[in-house]
Amino acid sequence: MTELRDRVQDVLARDACSGCGLCARLDGGLQMRLNAEGYIRPTETGAPAEVPDAAAVFTRSCPGVRITAQDPAGSHRHPLLGSSFGTWEAWATDPEVRLAGSSGGVLTALHAWLVASGRAARIAGAAGDPRAPRRSIPVTITTREQALAAAGSRYAPVAALTNTDVFAEGTAVTAKPCEISALRAAGTGREGEGPLLLSFFCAGTPSQRATDALLEGLGIGPEREVDALRYRGHGWPGRFAARAGDTDVSADYEESWGSTLGPTTQWRCKVCPDGVGESADIVAADSWATDERGYPQFAEGAGVSALIARTRRGLEVIEAAIAEGVIAVRPLSMDGLANAQPLQTARRRYLLARLWGSSLAGRTPPRYQGFGLARLGLAHPRRFAQVLRGTLRRVRAARGRRQ
Fold first, then answer.
1. CA–CA dist 217, 6 (Å, integer)
2. Do 270 and 393 belong together in one domain?
3. Is the full-model pTM beyond 0.90?
4. Which of 97, 111, 196, 293 fits a 20 to 30 Å CA distance from 168?
């Protein structure tokens, strides 16, 4: 065992792995593979083949070890949603792009424009595997057609950082917040240098088994080859839809995410401080309408994204995209976005209680700095205690089942 592999094993033992793939880039003898629970994890497939200073890079960058909140000079910091230089509601001006995207198609529009304009040579992202649409894989986008093919959310495991183009000159990267945090901390994404970093609000990575269960519940069993699958898009929030031969099935967002996919998110995501992409330059999210109680409404309609410039670099790119007519925008306050994203705000507000509960149950979580978790959590002591006890009970039960 090398020092790097010892540290990887520690993250796995603490159930703190997010499946980003950073460690597999640091050691060529590791590969990211699905485990029995349907989550993607590093697996030793050969002798260590480490890059220089692999253990040190891993220790400062792995999302299962630590994450540090970014607070760029001159930005405005929201206690629940992080720092920003600007916030808008936005949508793609191209109707085809807007329809294909999960919400307003903003990231897809930016992908197509960045490569067409020469601002990026390529986009490293993720999409469905055309040979096995049940699965998600890292992809490289260099054309509008490829951007459209990759449009829409992927609610299944994929290790975006295993894409070799992530570290190529001229690449922009779109990935989950934990993956973007790893890139930023590794030193490949310092503000103004390295790749342009784009992300999205993330509720967590479900098990691959949940996709298979959802398909089976809709009549497409595990033995059948799937020809096409999308989780969202073609409307907002869009339906889960799949085709196998002459069989077409679909489910609405509440049934697909709410009942089947969402409940299987991996443990690391349940104790994540940064589902809102604080380490990125640009972040997109759903800008849900809410009812009189403040709950999001999922009625179908024309998609609208929330868009955040996290850095001055991100602000410059967004302003250029607006000026060139790639996206249309209207004002949105961070408080307004917080109201439209109750899952994200509640998770951060009571995350410290989950972290303490997890630690007391014997599962040491990653270290998080700069997120103001103590101030947020201890402001509501009764609810804090309830969440702590609930987490303690669930983690103890989970550990008991594994023993």
1. 41
2. no
3. yes
4. 97
